[in-house]
Amino acid sequence: MNHARLLAALVVLGTLAITARANSRDDKTSFSERTITDGAASFRYRVFVPPNWTRKKKWPVILFLHGAGERGDDNIAQTRVGIGPALERQKDTLQAVVVLPQCPRDRWWSEPEMQARALKAFDRAVKEFNGDASRAYLTGLSMGGYGSWAIAASNPKRFAALAVVCGGIRVPARVGRVPNPLDVGDDPYRSAAEKVGKLPIWILHGGADPLVPVTESRKMVEAFKALGWTARYTEYEGVGHNSWDRAYAEPEMFSWMLAQRLKKTRR
Predict the structure, then answer these.
(1) Residue with more model confidence, 30 or 260
(2) Which of 17, 76, 153, 254 is exposed most, by the fewest CB atoms within 10 A?
């Protein structure tokens, strides 16, 4: 093969390699697509993987639960609201794998079956991307905030930190009947706090939220305080339901989260 043909072949191979790398980032985003098959059922989810990811070291892994508006089966909507845009802004600097499952229409993250689905995607990502079990984190917004409380309460020693954005325990009556295992008893907030335990927590909420009352977050803060524990709290004065844009843009959000490590005993 002469030099001209060799050069042409190398150019073609280089182009194919670049195309392959681009295609590995599905839809030209930072979120790769994955599928889990469970018996006759299957579901898709997305995973953010840092560009410099390598199997030579352990990686922190974040599980993100989206809100009700992102439910469906397109496996894209959950990347466009909340943590997704923040990841796009920091994709070259954030050193963590992030798992973004999608809840089907008419289902809720607070349902045990949906919690199990989210955790299955999380576990698969931890295994696939060499995740560090001592640096596992949970966060969610709105419906995902409710789901985050539920998952944390059911798995109090699984995550090193929890960030809940405009979530709560008691679902407003106007929303209708929503399965929520934490909304029981005379004081569900204290009960939920006891189940979650002494976990590093950051609660964020808009002070003028018309959908999920800010009192939901305030009551959780007070419940932890009554137990002698401290939950970090940020309330955005005058902000409505969309407190997630500001929450995930907090300069310390990811540095605070990734600084936490799972301890054997929290209580």
Answers:
(1) 260
(2) 17
pLDDT in tens, 131-143: 999 999 999 999 9
Across the chain, how many H-helices and E-strands are there? 8, 8
Contacts of 190 (CB under 8 A, 6+ apart): 223, 226, 227
SS3 content of the chain, % helix, strand, coil (to 5): 40, 20, 40
Q: Are strands 41-48 and 59-65 parallel, antiparallel or unpaired?
A: unpaired
> Which helix or strand (DSSP H or E) is residue 44 part of?
strand 41-48
> What are the backbone dihedrals phi and psi of residue 152, each rounded to the nearest 5 degrees, phi first?
-65, -40
Direct distance between the N- and C-terminal alpha carbons of the chain, in angstroms, rounded to an integer: 71
Tokens of 32: 């790769």
Residues 6+ apart with CB under 8 A from 156: 195, 196, 197, 199, 266
**Is the pTM here over 0.85, yes or no?**
yes
Q: Is 188 helix (H, G, I), strand (E, B) or coil?
A: helix
> What is the pLDDT confidence band of residue 185, given thresholds at 50, 70 and 90?
confident
Residue 125 CA to residue 266 CA, distance in Å, equals 25
CB 49 within 8 A of CB 38: no
Q: Is the pLDDT of residue 25 over 50?
A: no
